[in-house]
Amino acid sequence: xxxxxxxxxxxxxxxxxxxxxxxxxxxxxxxxxxxxxxxxxxxxxxxxxxxxxxxxxxxxxxxxxxxxxxxxxxxxxxxxxxxxxxxxxxxxxxxxxxxxxxxxxxxxxxxxxxxxxxxxxxxxxxxxxxxxxxxxxxxxxxxxxxxxxxxxxxxxxxxxxxxxxxxxxxxxxxxxxxxxxxxxxxxxxxxxxxxxxxxxxxxxxxxxxxxxxxxxxxxxxxxxxxxxxxxxxxxxxxxxxxxxxxxxxxxxxxxxxxxxxxxxxxxxxxxxxxxxxxxxxxxxxxxxxxxxxxxxxxxxxxxxxxxxxxxxxxxxxxxxxxxxxxxxxxxxxxxxxxxxxxxxxxxxxxxxxxxxxxxxxxxxxxxxxxxxxxxxxxxxxxxxxxxxxxxxxxxxxxxxxxxxxxxxxxxxxxxxxxxxxxxxxxxxxxxxxxxxxxxxxxxxxxxxxxxxxxxx
Length: 456
Hints:
The chain is α+β, with helices and mostly antiparallel strands. It is built from 12 helices and 16 strands.
């Protein structure tokens, strides 16, 4: 029932996007009507020269306003007809993409748009509204255009700082162009298809006490300080030789095939080349529809995961990030950009648990959250705590840690405190709050028992 009400509400609201008159126009008409009536209320009576001049001035003012408003409307109609003509004849070129460098420079999510051909109304405006992810839409906005733009141009190109609530991939489905006059009385809207995807990026913060050694040997180029065990591949065997340890003979194979083979043993390798980073998004709880878990908790986890990866790269390690879910195709050859995209598009899931996901033979770091299964974590850390660094991220700190969002600049740009307060209130009455808090406490005790916590 609530879903249907929301859908109808969205449809009604979207229908209002196409009303050709703005609120300013209705305010102007109402004010003009009251003023006209007040001025003709009969305060000046009699057939005198002053009364005639007064009436004439009112008529001149009326026709002047009418002409000015008509010219404003005409400029909008001309630009609109020009746009429709080229749209039907040659088509409109419309491009939208994220400006990653601009976003990082200003600490805001930046979207760059390009439209050609289109002509602005005389001294007027062209504004846009983007519809994305089926039921969501942006505010009406004007582009921040380059100051080098010519007086008359058929191209609109510029950036838009778009505060978005989640670190994720967004799917823009269409744009609505608005042709508005200089007074912003009239606003004629037209749809423009825009099949485009872009993703918001996690920010980065410093990570203290992050000490780790590579365990996976891919290239013997980087020597490590201490010898680490590199396990032999247990699926590969070799024929028994005189100098082999008889204790390594695989008797099951001998009983079956009458062949003496030995398993390739562990070696003490002084070289290592890569750090394998695992970040689990597995949740033992059903979090679907839980706002605090799906937005601020997930944003916080993604931001810290990216921060861990970036800090390792800055330390000079070759880092291999292993996602625990299928990553959509991304046209980038940059390894770090792919990792950022993979982290940004990840979601909480219940399909691949920690034991299935983590390959303990090569894992150097395993990142877990407050939603992880404490029993699985305990089992893994008891067996591999000396070789693998486990980093526990307390999700509830995303709501209650002071100034936690100072370093997530573009998530809640305009009403940051208000949004956090809404999530706090929602979390305080959530049915999962007690369960996750208890699980979080137990996970913290397990990790602290075996390892020194990393300061996040």
